Amino acid sequence: MEITNDIKYAGVNDHEIDLFEGQYIVENGMAYNSYVILDEKIAVFDTVDANFKEEWLKNVADITSEKAPDYLIVQHMEPDHSANIAVFMETYPSAKIVSSAKAFTMMKQFFGTDFADRQIIVKEGDTLSLGKHELSFIAAPMVHWPEVIVTYDSYDKVLFSADGFGKFGALDVEEDWACEARRYYIGIVGKFGVQVQNLLKKAAGLDISTICPLHGPILKENLGYYLDLYNTWSSYSVETEGVMIAYTSVYGNTKKAVELLAEKLESFGCPKVVVNDLARCDMAEAVEDAFRYGKLVLATTTYNGDVFPFMREFIHDLTERNFQNRTIGLMENGSWAPTAVKTMQKMLEGCKNLTFTDTSVQIMSALNDNSAAQIESLAKELI
Ligand code: FEO
To answer: Can you tell me the distance from the alpha carbon of 199 to that of 143, in angstroms, rounded to the nearest whole number?
Structure first.
């Protein structure tokens, strides 16, 4: 695949993977992108996952017509991109590695060597000339690890954005960008909104016509759309007006209460109601929805003096990603001493700028007139 006259795609598609990063379901697989710039000097951007060593080395060799690359630019040391650094260095003994000082420390940890006599350490603002192509390096700490650099090629106006603007899904599968880019972003980079905002500010000063991320498609058109979404996600702003209801239900009574709430919200004209059963849905999808919509309702049972395990995990997933700026409604179910509302409030107390509804719903075992009236009142407050 040709990105520009001089920039070629050397990445691979992974349809064998069970869980990306050991936890994310990727029904449409995953792409590990890698790029080659052909100029007076040849630069390769990042390697790929360990399982694709041969395919990737062949891609690189085909693109360079067996000419040895001069540089391996390592933007990120997570093994989905760095696993083949050592084999690349063995294959091309004259190549040098261009990367941040922190990345070389990690190379020593991963490979037992930091390639001391073959390293070029770069930091923010440093440049590397390949001939026509002048590369500038931009520090992007915590997008998604501390050693990350991204690279701008002023000749072709390309931003090599590391994990930024990545998405789940292999490149040979057609699917909506935002859906899987959002789940990827919130799950993997969601905690680091401040750092992503810093990178976006630096990117705003560049004339960019193409974004080449390390996962997902190369972005060439309508870049404002992607940059706007990244701005929304990284500033923890509401992307879509609506209510997301996340619940757990042991015998179906909490589920019935949630269905009644969803029905009431819809009948009152709520623009969008999304319901997730936390025991059965993809948790990463539910977390993504919580960050997408403006309002969140949590409904669960009191369990061992705490909340039901899936709800505990869900709230933890939100708080560790700096969940903020949202309206929250709470519903609890218990047959003798319901305390889930209090427990959930406590779990969320460290989050910035949450507004709790005045109405909380308490169900004693099963819906009755009293709890149904509370649900109606919660629905009215939420819309
Ligand atoms: Fe795609 Fe953070 O590695």
So the answer is: 8
